[in-house]
Amino acid sequence: MLYTHRPEPDSIPLSMARPIITIVGAGNVGAAAAHITAASELADVLLIDVVPGLAEGKALDIAQAGPIEQFDSKVTGTTDWEEATGSDIVIVTSGARRAPGMSRDELLSKNVAIINEVGGRISRYCQDAIVIVVANPLDAMVHATARVTDIPHQRIVGMAGELDFARFRYLLASELNLSAQSIRGVLLGGHGDDMVPLPRHTSIRGVPITELLDREKIDRIVDKTRKGGIEIVNLLGYSAYYAPAAGAVKMAEAIIEDKKELVSCCAYCRRQYRVGGYFVGVPAILGHSGVEKIVELDLDDSERRQFEVSLSHVRQLAARVDSLLATSTPDSEL
Q1: What is the β-pairing status of strands 75-78 and 44-48?
Q2: Out of 35, 143, 191, 288, which one is annotated catalytic?
Q3: Relative to the CA of 16, which of 35, 106, 147, 193 has its CA 20 to 30 Å away?
Q4: Rounded mean pLDDT of 285-300?
Q5: Does the N-terminal peptide bond of residue 137 adopt cis geometry, omega within 30 degrees of 0?
Q6: Could you confirm whether 191 is annotated as catalytic?
Q7: For residue 108, what are the contacts with CB-CB under 8 A and spacing of at least 6?
């Protein structure tokens, strides 16, 4: 059962266990998310990976940082999904890496197959969990997760908007020479190139950024935000992981602690924004039940057009996912 309040460490009865977050995939994003979760003492962590020894080794390394960083969260690694039984949250980070020159869409067929396998294990062992998907291409992978599991749509959510908005905030803060912590706002649409930042709904302590920056500067920052992921891929040769991991853990925190927090995330919409039954980036309230409410904003004509373009791409990806799943057969034990 999820907790609405986590007492101070010295007041936790010995019989009270922390919530359990299972992180699927012990690569860069998964390991970073495990570390952030453990260090914050938000939950105990189970790290799962198909590669023998990988999750076990990274979990042991993180756990041994505990005495130095002064956290007592339990961190274990395994290849055995049965150990995930009873997890409160499952964060799915497993998937093929995005290489230089590769679009998120090109990852589709590889990662649909992986999600097909992972989804079966989630349904079998973690049917009461809330699932946070981080794998790319994000919107398509959230759709695939919903297709291959029996988890209600309300309890499946994708981490994308939190990362995209963090990049937007970082660039705005750099331009304005102020703390990113003072910037508030939301954004819409698919992850990456199709994201729809909303300058009208972004403010510095209540002051809209449109009052502080001219249109040319805002457009330049929006363009750089959209290209934020591929910029890192081109520099490193692989995808970002610290910021995506932090975004996933922040969402998990909002759910575990029932914060009713407004978060930009990939959530299922039917009537909202006239989406028609797809997972897409929108502002949503996260709490114990997962996605508890979609917040609908009054969009102007330009924002609506941008969102419709983004949504059309999401629908195309979903159709491709459906086609791939129709011809796929799980063939490995994850």
Answers
A1: parallel
A2: 191
A3: 35
A4: 97
A5: yes
A6: yes
A7: 137, 140, 317, 320, 321, 324
